[in-house]
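Write out a record, focusing on structure:
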Amino acid sequence: MNSPRAFRYLDLVTAAFVCVLVVSNVASSAKIVDLGFSLFGIPMAFDGGTLLFPVSYIFGDILTEVYGFRTARRVIWTGFVALAASSLVFFVLKALPGDSSWEGYAGQAAYNAILGGMSSGGIVAASLAGFLMGGLSNALVLARLKVLTGGKALWMRTLGSTLVGQLVDTVAFVVVASAVGVFGWDLFVSLVLTNYLFKCLVEALMTPATYRAVRFLKGAEGIDVYDWDLRITLPRFRPER
């Protein structure tokens, strides 16, 4: 019986990814940020989760580059389970009666306004639709490019996969979030443009850190996966035998 290989840092990278995913979705529901200027006549405004969410794509790049597409896909689904659990907690909390003193300085209306997206499932639905399509697109493009380039030009692969994945993610996220009432349709173009540009910029600025993380993990784990026979299938959670 073959035992699955144990990695030293995979669990830490997975935990960091899940944390970023959950916190960024809470932030998305909490606040819309206005930078106070326009680009081509479009106001530069974005949801709060945009500050942190691009980091999840950096984790996706690192996971795919070091451990391979299948591991990255498994971590993405693990994040979705955690996100669904957090949404359930906020939903139950919303339904429970509030303390009288809490109602005096905060109240149910404030809870609904700030955490309504997480407790109603709107942000979660948008995130699932966006990150499932965008995250897997990002990982797939990077894995394909790694094979085509023979593992060279990591910067080109991370940026190229991000341009594709973030476009799919951003459009899907804002469409679903607007459809379920989290955002108004009048913010659609502004949110898509600002989120996309900001996320791609963060990825570009983080390229040196991505290089260092990839180099460290490949050396520490003794692994560098090439997905030569990559096929898109549903993730398997059965233990290996």
